[in-house]
Design goal:
alpha/beta; 8 strands; 151 residues; Glyas_Bleomycin-R_OHBP_Dase; four-stranded mixed β-sheet; PhnB-like; VOC family protein
Length: 151
């Protein structure tokens, strides 16, 4: 079993996929649009909705991130999709240079909360919110730090 981050968007999943593909040096992208399935005549989708991302997966550096759009009709049930801080993606145990490359790309159009720097617990630690409102935390020594504590 694996736990992964799954990001939902209000019609911006395609743009987010392109953005993350470049920033994270993605090696594999898979996506399915809502229009790939037959239409329910009782609830037909607009052309725009048919082009939205129903499910997608990107792979980078041995990691997986999934993204999708939430149709307006689905939001009546699931609630409105809003930018927020309930999802945080943590990039852990990467070399400081890799952290720097990804941090710089993800911060474009976003907000740096804590610039990448050396801290007592990590040689490369920082936090940002990207242009889609997703919070990212970088900690090059997360596992080493946690393993140094006895429970």
């Amino acid at each position: 079993m694996k736990a992964i981050a799954y990001l939902q968007f209000d019609g911006k999943a395609e743009e987010a996929l392109t953005y993350y593909e470049k920033a994270l040096q993605v090696t594999s992208v898979k996506k399915v649009r809502f229009g790939a399935f037959g239409q329910d005549p009782n609830t037909p989708l607009t052309e725009e909705e048919q082009n939205m991302i129903m499910e997608s997966r990107i792979e980078f550096s041995g990691n997986i991130l999934m993204l999708s759009d939430v149709l307006p009709s689905m939001q009546a049930v699931t609630g409105e999709v809003t930018k927020g801080n309930t999802v945080l993606i943590s990039i852990i145990d990467a070399e400081p240079e890799m952290n720097k490359q990804i941090f710089e790309k993800l911060s474009e159009g976003g907000t740096v909360i804590m610039p990448l720097s050396s801290t007592p617990w990590s040689a490369s630690f920082g936090m940002l919110v990207d242009k889609f409102g997703v919070m990212w935390k970088f900690n090059s020594e997360a596992s080493k730090f946690l393993d140094s504590f006895v429970n």
